[in-house]
Amino acid sequence: MPDSGPYFTHRSLVPVRAAARDTAEMVTQLLFGDCVDLLARDRQWMQIRNRADGYLGWIDEKMVLLWTEEAWERVRNWEYVFDPVLRTQWETPHGAVPLHLSLGSRVPRIEVGDEIVFSLAGHTLRLARSAVCHYAGATAADMVAFSARYLGAPYLWGGKSLWGIDCSGFTQICFAVGGISIPRDASQQVRIGKEITFAERKAGDLAFFQNEKGRVNHVGIVLENGLIRHASGCVHDARLTADGIIDINKQRLTHTLCSIKRIS
After folding, report:
1. Which member of 35, 174, 218, 255 is catalytic?
2. Of 230, 236, 255, 258, which is the active-site residue?
3. 31 and 161 Cβ atoms separated by less than 8 Å
4. Among residues 18, 29, 67, which one has the least CA distance to residue 166?
5. Separation of alpha carbons 227 and 150, rounded Å
6. 134 assigned to active site
7. Does the annotation mark 174 as catalytic?
8. Per-residue pLDDT tens over the stretch 184-216
9. Of the N and C termini of the chain, which has fewer Cβ atoms inside 10 Å?
């Protein structure tokens, strides 16, 4: 297939849908900097595979720009946005286009220097090194600290931003910023890592929860002091017991514990 990719997500936040139509379910989102491969086309719709996690879905073609394998291979590392919103702009032949990068978005660093300059398809982005952060090799404590930036973010099925995020999108992006790639969904994330007993748990582990049919349907990040941070209603901290999550306000079990995994 010609021009199969990679394609670069040059918009701030892109819905990925289950089918090639605007009314289809949003199954996940792409953040600025996500790179995808083209699998098929249907009018203006592209069926894509996310290079980071292999997730499939449909996006509008206006949300991405064709990149090159050569450029992809030249990336030295990825820098992450740590502020709730980073206000910047694309420089184009037709003038500046405002760009608002959300928390967790990533920018490729091609050259070494104090300024990050990234260009593709007539668009140029310039950022000061201080505007972003390289967090590869982060410790569990670093990722737990980063996860606190999402506290209060509302729950959104398929969401991956501060303005709406689901449980597995939350855990995935916190680990990605720390340089660890994990799958998109809780039912996929539970298949990786080392099984840990409840007594062995420590901050930075992932705790998984199951429904009445035994299907894994929720995940959160283990904290110190018997707490867990997860996206349910909003990203918040709750009490974690051997039975599951106890809502601090309602004082009742809301999620049944299935397993705890250590990701390294």
Report:
1. 218
2. 230
3. yes
4. 29
5. 16
6. no
7. no
8. 999 999 999 999 999 999 999 999 999 999 999
9. C
